[in-house]
Amino acid sequence: MIAESFFGTLKTELIYNKKYKTIAEARRDVFDYVEAFYNRLRLHSTLDYMSPEEFEVQYKLKTAA
Is 59 helix (H, G, I), strand (E, B) or coil? Predict the structure, then answer.
């Protein structure tokens, strides 16, 4: 179910909004979306609506105390 949710989000937020001329262009765009946006900046409900970066910082602060 998690994978289906991710792919639904990917399609809605990225794929359906663009037309790609080449597979290489689509691959680059998907890579950039996942690495630069989804995994770093996008708010995730499972992380209490924090970005993964923010969640990691908060986690490290809590466990260091």
Answer: helix
